[in-house]
Amino acid sequence: MVTFTETLEFNTSKEGDILDLTGDVKRVVKQSRVSNGIVTVFVPGSTGALTTIEYEPGLLQDLPAALERIAPSNVYYHHEEMWHDGNGRSHVRASIIGPSLTVPIVNGELTLGTWQQIVFIELDIRPRRRKVIVQIIGE
C-alpha cells in the first residue's frame, strides 16, 4: 500500500470563482504511480468547497445562482455576531457543499464521468490564497 500527498496552491480573485482542478489531480495521480486506489481532495478552511460539475459556461452561472437561492447574501447570519466579517453566507454555503471529495483510481486513471470535472469553489467574500491537499492511497 502506498500513500502519496501533494499540496496544490493557487489564488482566487472573488467570491464565486469556480476553478477546474481536474488536470492538477490527474497529474498528481500519475506522479504517485498508483494503479488502483483512491484520491481524496481536501480544502483546509471553512469558506472553500470541492465538488464535481460539468465545467461549462451555463453551469458556471447556474451553480452560484443556486447557492444564492439556498444561502442568500441579503439575509442576517448569526456568524456576524462573532467576527463581524460579512461572510456568514460563505460558511453556510461551504458547509452544504463540503470540504472534500474522494474519487476511485482504476488502472491509473480517475473514474470520472465523461463530462465530470473536479472543481474548487471560492465562497469567501474576498480573494484568497488557497491550498488544496491531494492524497492518494493505493497500490
Keywords:
139 residues; 29% helix; 8 strands; alpha+beta; three-stranded antiparallel beta sheet
CATH topology: Jelly Rolls
User: What composes the largest sheet?
Assistant: 5 strands, antiparallel
What would you report as the Rg, rounded to the nearest angstrom? Answer: 16 Å
Query: If helices are DSSP runs of H or I spanning 4 or more residues, what is the number of helices?
Result: 4
Order of helices and strands: EEHEEHHHEEEE
User: Given the C-alpha coordinates, what overall shape results?
Assistant: elongated
Number of domains: 1
Distance between the termini: 5 Å
CATH class designation: Mainly Beta
CATH superfamily: YjbQ-like
The average pLDDT is 97
Order of strands, widest sheet: 1-8-3-5-6
Q: Can you give the helix content as a percent range? A: 25-40%
> Based on the structure given, which CATH architecture is correct?
Sandwich
Strand content: 35-45%
- The total strand number stands at 8
Ranges where pLDDT stays below 50 over 5 or more residues in a row are none
